[in-house]
């Protein structure tokens, strides 16, 4: 979609034989498709093979934060620090398979092998619900917290910290090659 749209996503970047699959979470704010792409990516090595069985992937998007979850375990929290660093525009839900092998698998070292097509993705138990960023105050988004107060419980927070310390392989805020003037939320 050309123009300055917002995007929140989960992507599987594939794998090479004997290595774990990589899951990437993305947050783009008014910058995709217009030459000013500023990705806010975090990449994780999965602790399981996602091709062997179904797993639950979720994005909880409330007016104050985004929480990414895998099998009900939070892996990333992206707080709203300002309107300039938080996705607020209307979005669509897409599920697709696309070839990103020019950059995704070890920086393009391994390309998609089309001898194995057709490539198939299956979705079950899909749900979309919640409040928009401009919803009235009485609208209460779905919560991952057992206290239904929003945010994460202390146990969920520590589970996320543990997972990030053991499975996080890329964090845009820690990338020394990036211009962090464009990502003020990293400070």
From TrEMBL:
GO molecular function, one term: hydrolase activity, hydrolyzing O-glycosyl compounds
Enzyme class name: transferase
Subcellular location(s) of the protein: Secreted, Cell wall; Secreted, Extracellular space, Apoplast
GO biological process: cell wall organization; glucan metabolic process
Keyword Hydrolase among UniProt keywords: yes
Superkingdom per UniProt: Eukaryota
Protein name as annotated: xyloglucan:xyloglucosyl transferase
Organism: Citrus sinensis
